[in-house]
Amino acid sequence: MNKGKIDVLLGLQWGDEGKGKVVDVLTPRYDVIARFQGGPNAGHTLEFEGKKYVLRSIPSGIFQGDKINIIGNGVVLAPDLFMKEAQELEKSGHDLTQRLYISKKAHLIMPTHRLLDMANEAAKGKDKVGTTGKGIGPTYTDKVSRNGLRVGDIFHHFDEKYAAHKARHEQMLRALDFTDYDIAEVEREWMEGVEYLKRYHIVESEHTINKMITEEGKNVLCEGAQGTMLDVDFGSYPFVTSSNTISAGACIGLGVAPGRINKVYGIMKAYCTRVGAGPFPTELFCETGTKLRDLGHEYGAVTGRERRCGWIDLVALRYAIMVNGVTDLIMMKSDVLDTFPTIKACVAYRIDGKETRDFPYDITEGVEPVYQELPGWQTDMTRMTDESQFPDAFKAYIDFLEEQLQTPISIVSIGPDRAQTIIRK
Predict the structure, then answer these.
(1) 171: closest CA among 118, 115, 125?
(2) What whole-number percentage of the chain has pLDDT above 90?
(3) How far is Cα 343 from Cα 271, in angstroms, rounded to an integer?
(4) Which of 7, 79, 381, 393 has the fewest CB atoms within 10 Å, i.e. is most exposed?
């Protein structure tokens, strides 16, 4: 039997690139869709058949009836939020229990992790990171300090383990002078979620996924959350998430060897956005930024927060392509630029009077974007069905990006619906 392959799909900017839709479009090519990092701070939005769905912890392949979906060991999982998400999908006619596998080694986000998240942000004052408050950071902190509670623990002396972890967190909260809270109701729902988890295939996912590839010949798509520029090592630290969002994270977050990775699909918007605090060299504070936000409906899928908007940043993109080993680019929200007479692209940074094309150690201050202007296409592309219909100015924009980034743009999205996706020849 032929061995299966593993491809990785991830965001190249600061998240919100449109990964959920692309996973849904690509899933017919794969047997297994696997999440490898992040938690319910991810918000992958999918629209089809007139309905809109937002997935937080569940892989985006869940809408394809015959696909296996895996929540890997690198993910952090909140049982109560997972239960609500799964029950919403069940109401819409999608039975998950037979097709969703959850790693025993995935770490659990406890109610007290959320309190610690709030307490830590409050303590930082003006230096706060802009966390979603879902408890992601404190859960990963417990993981790396070897104090974590894992999905597999729900089958072994769980009440005792939970009480010990909760007591430790409460001691930390007292030290932060954060004592005015009542988690009784949240805790009750959380425990319901723990019981609900037991309906699913709780597995040693590293064995499961490797057997699927080597023994069953299944093809796997690894679905990243957040974006490359939020990677804890390579992102705009400290304004980052708490996990490795790059392609190497798929190996650690699923237990697969680097040599098994085949294609790496990198998703980018035709412009750039960021949610929350942190540096953003091409951010626009003018009417153009507002127009991008309104036309692109740039509001967080999970938080509802307004996204900051700016022109595409090719310095950051070249860096993201390099650290991920991207083989194919996917450009989202091209239609948002349909009405602009001029499009700008940041081709270099000017720092202390010197131009550089390399992404620097720190971009918090003193970074001035160097722009190249291109003519806009001023054409409604949302009804187009083939790249031959693209206006010449848009074709020129694609050619320019491919030349700058030295990577082919294989897929172009021209609207939120599954059908508004052009696979280029």
Answers:
(1) 115
(2) 76
(3) 9
(4) 393
User: For the whole model, what pTM was predicted?
Assistant: 0.91
Contact partners, residue 106, CB within 8 Å, separation at least 6: 71, 72, 73, 74, 75, 76, 77, 150, 151
DSSP strand E in 193-260: where? 201-203, 220-223
pLDDT of residue 211: 96
Among 7, 24, 31, 44, the one annotated catalytic? 44
Distance CA 118, CA 113 (A): 9
pLDDT in tens, 15-43: 889 887 887 788 889 999 999 999 887 66
Angle at alpha carbon of residue 278, lines to 223 and 36, rounded to 5°: 15
The single-letter code of the amino acid at 269 is K
Q: Phi and psi of 79, rounded to 5°?
A: -55, -40
315 three-class SS: helix
- Separation between Cα atoms, residue 188 and residue 41, nearest integer Å: 21
State which amino acid sits at residue 240. V
Which three-class secondary structure state does DSSP give residue 47? strand
Rg of the chain's alpha carbons, rounded to an integer?
A: 21
pLDDT digits 0-9 by tens, 307-339: 999 999 999 999 999 999 999 999 999 999 999
Q: How far is 218 from 212, CA to CA, in rounded Å?
A: 5
Spot the catalytic one: 16, 31, 117, 142. Answer: 16
> What proportions of the chain, in percent to the nearest 5, are helix, strand and coil?
35, 25, 40
- Distance, CA of 368 to CA of 350 (rounded, Å): 5
239: left (phi > 0), else alpha (psi -120 to 50), else beta? beta
- Residue 62: the pLDDT is 81
Q: Does the active-site annotation cover 294?
A: no
Q: pLDDT tens digit string along 88-142? A: 888 877 778 889 999 999 999 999 999 999 998 887 776 666 566 789 999 999 9
Size of the chain in residues: 425
Active site residue 16: yes
**d(C-alpha 36, C-alpha 8), whole Å:** 10
